[in-house]
Sequence to fold (239 residues):
Amino acid sequence: MAKSSTYRMRVKENVRMTDPTCRDEVVQLTLETKTRDAVNTFQAGQYVRIAIPGVQEPSPGYFAIASSPEDSAGYEFFVKNAGSLSQYLCTIQGGTELDIEGPMGKGFDLESHKGCDVYLIGVGTGIAPLRSVWRHLIKHRDDYGHIHIYAGFLSSLHQLLTDELEELGNHDIEVSTTLEVGHDNWEGPIGYVQHALESDAPNSKNAVACLAGMSAMVDACTESLQNLGFDDSRILLNY
Fold:
């Protein structure tokens, strides 16, 4: 794996992901190398440090890679407009250059868990590093047992990757989507993602869970998993 270093990339694509009427804007930002060479290799769940060239403010920030480790054409990110840097990233156009450092962080190392059932649990833009994981798992589907994704969003307007999540059934991957705020036509779980996890009560035997999202959610889901019999060595975080 390449060592962490700072290098220049440019915006290939910037696409809004949340419903246009949603006040919370999330975009899918795709970066490519200036020479269109392969990007630095990484492990699913790792992240990079993004900075605006030549300026100190807004200060750099860290963003999890949402693309597959097998995709060498670029990096994809989900960016929520929630601060000075993210606001800039949500509005930049194709061709804009950014300084990148990484990949860094431990990511989700599932190599030693081959043959296990895998549970991916995340909320909001925390689904980004999990997307990297499930795209990697698709490439190595026969190496793992049952795969189940628990995704949580505030409302239907905040949902991300709806079509992609629906298509994962074609790869024998089960998906449960929870909305904190439901609506008349919503037939899925309502509440917090840990409630759907507790309701399903997955078997902890020969299973591993990957968590990504807000610290409160990670703490709550960790407690739920522990109550279901998952020991700490099988509850994985990417940082």
Remarks:
- Residues 139 and 150 are 20 Å apart (CA to CA).
